[in-house]
Amino acid sequence: MYLKQTILACLLATLSQSALADQLKLQVGYPERYTVQKGDILRDILGRALAETGLWHRLWNVNPQIANPHWSYPLLGKATQGGKQVVHLSPKSRVENKANPVPMLPLSEIGPFLQTDHILADNQQAKQLPYVLGNNEAHIGMLEGDTLYVQGSLTPGQEYGIYHPGVVYKDKQTGELLGQEAVFVGTARAEERLPDDRTRVTLSHNQREVYQGDKVMPLPPQETLSAVFTPKAAPVISPGYIVDLPSKARGGGKFDVVLINRGLRDQLAPGDVLEVRRPGATLVSKNGKVSYKEYSSLYNKAFYSTGKQPLPSEAVARVMLFKVYDKLSYGLIMQSQDMVSSGYQVSNF
Fold first, then answer.
1. CB burial class (10 A; 0-12, 13-18, 19+) of residue 226?
2. Do residues 53 and 47 touch, judged by C-beta distance below 8 A?
3. pTM confidence score
4. CA angle 296, 299, 300 (to 5 degrees)
5. Which of 133, 143, 208, 323 could make an SS bond with 185 (beta carbons 3.0 to 4.6 A apart)?
């Protein structure tokens, strides 16, 4: 896959449709498209097309959406080339402090979540899904190339994802069921429908061993996957929190994925940006001596930790949502001043 940015083509289209066409002349054989390189600025890019390179600022003046000609900000897009899907970048400029340009989205980090990973709404949804019965060789863990049998009627010739039921997420304050993690373990191709509502399948690929009882779901069509994300401030929500880090690491930083307990019912959508705040440290005060609660004895925690308010929370990161369910959302950490962990608050900034 290739990452391309077509800033030049868009700017020249503006030129051809404006009165500036009479003032700015193009070079003979100017490039209609140009792949932006690290360090490029608007002046250098336009210098490849304008006959009088010193007049590049006139074209900038009729493109007020470009706040700073020394920075350009790419976003991910999707197209087809030679029958294969490629990722390209659509030009997008936004007002941003020069020291904090909007980073390019790493498709490699979010691609698996868009294509394969999933959250089940509840236990009832999990019970209704087709599931793996096993194979006639009585393998406990089944691998690529194995013939499996699935309880459920699948469409012959279609590829399906196989998922292992994972963590059940519940709201830590209300106990409400938020959803259940569906861990992607592999893909299978449906071969033949059989009596008793069963299907013979071939395990075409696996990331982990497939077990009896693993769930089977259709993979989302490529054309339905979100291809372009436009970061924007999220609508006003009540503060939520980071439920989990899918990597299962203790902390996450820039371009790590997090799962939060807010979603469609909170009017959130892909592209919404929220702030992540680190909770203030809890204090224990005993006889005028202050210490951190986490370093105090069990006795002091029990009897002396209620008199002092925690220290103020601090904004440490911003996260952009890219896959939104009813009560949960996956987000990508776009900017980070420090590591974030489960339990950190997410809110509007």
1. middle
2. yes
3. 0.63
4. 45
5. 208
